[in-house]
Amino acid sequence: MENSTATSSHWTFRQVMVIAGIWFAFLISFITRLSWSTIMPSAIDSLHFTVQQGNSYLTAFYIGYAITVLPGGMLADKFGYKKLLLAAVLGNLVVMGAMVFMQGYWDGLALRFILGLVSGPDLSACLGIITEWFDGKKRATATGIFNTCTSFGLTVINLYAPTVMVHYGWRAALGVTAFFPLAALIFAFFALRGNPPFPQQFGVKEADGKIETESSMSRLKKAINNRSVWMLAITGLFATGAKWGVTNWANLFIVKNLKFDVVTAGTAMSIFGITSVVSMVVAGWISDHSKWSRHVWAAIFMAIFTPTIIGFALTPQGSLGMLYFWTGAMGVGAFMFSTITNNLSVEVAPADQRGTVSGFINVFNQVGSFLAPVLLGQLLASTGSYVSSYLIISVFPIIAVVALLFVRESDADKNK
């Protein structure tokens, strides 16, 4: 009965609760990782840190996160997606609580590194849970709704943290942040209860019908012996790198090159956030209701990214209407494809390798996210032009489009 309900055209109450649970849990991951950026100006003055020391806290998180993304996905395959997600949220709770009491540079740096380590399994676990609860006709829509929490996290942290920090100090802002993982842990525990209609498989079916379990390393070898997995990894390296590269540099570009004030830049980036959220949900709905393959839609959505980067880079100085238009368009280009590529990262994987495959691909996503802003800085230093830097990096999505054309969703069946 559960299976037939799950494959109907309407979402069940339990499916709504599942999406709410993982959305809240992953939102928390973004709030905790962004918390230091928000409180850093006040915290480094209080702790007598240099700006470079403060920035090293940001790097420490992403190093820890990159280390555990792949093993976290493998552990999710071994022990279950729900268990690993709840463990990640619990880890966020403990580390954020400890950061309230940090006294010096090294203990805070260690805690930020540990925060990255405990957050590593979160995305793989969430995507795995979606495959357990949603069939192929609903999965991309569910993924699109889930993805909106990434943009929403930046909004939430900026709604409360600056105000709390001004009135009660940066430690209080971290303390309030620590309550979010606690709330998410309790809510997700109850929201994710029940037996999913498409449960995770912990083994592979042999010719005689028996289920044989495999080691984590065996699953990893199978995962990377797959053309589609490597093509999605290349896609993540270039497309995700371009996405976060242009996003992290957008405010600086608007203020320094286009000569708008910081308030106008903030308004433009708010439009960017709104269009990115809407486009991710729309992308999922289109993919679920179309007969075209997901990799085709992903390539189409990603192809939008390059012209929007170019349009944004060539925005005339003083043209407010063009600024808002191209910033909003770039929000669509930068995020619309991610719904489908996240979906593909689990759909090209056999049922017992979903966490491993998504974790492997996410390693390349993180490398791209880390390297792209650095590359933009190097391009600016070499060319002396913000516009030239953006135009060069606009080529990255084209490379990703080519890689997507070699992805086949049916590749999962070859490893079964």
TrEMBL record:
Give the record's GO biological process terms.
Answer: phosphate ion transmembrane transport
Keywords recorded for this protein, A-Z: Membrane, Transmembrane, Transmembrane helix, Transport
Any one GO MF term held by the record is:
glucose 6-phosphate:phosphate antiporter activity
Output the Gene Ontology cellular-component terms: plasma membrane
Q: Which InterPro entries match?
A: MFS (IPR011701), MFS_dom (IPR020846), MFS_trans_sf (IPR036259), OPA_Antiporter (IPR051337), Sugar_P_transporter (IPR000849)
Superkingdom per UniProt = Bacteria
Q: What Pfam families does this protein's entry cite? A: MFS_1 (PF07690)
Q: Is Zinc tagged as a keyword?
A: no
Domain Major facilitator superfamily (MFS) profile, first and last residues per copy: 13-412
Q: Where are the transmembrane segments?
A: 16-36, 56-77, 84-103, 109-130, 142-161, 173-192, 229-250, 262-284, 296-315, 321-340, 360-381, 387-407
What is this entry's stated membrane topology? Multi-pass membrane protein
The question of whether Transmembrane is a record keyword is answered with: yes
Q: Where does this one sit in the cell?
A: Cell membrane
Query: What is the protein named?
Result: MFS transporter
**What organism does this protein naturally occur in?**
Levilactobacillus suantsaiihabitans
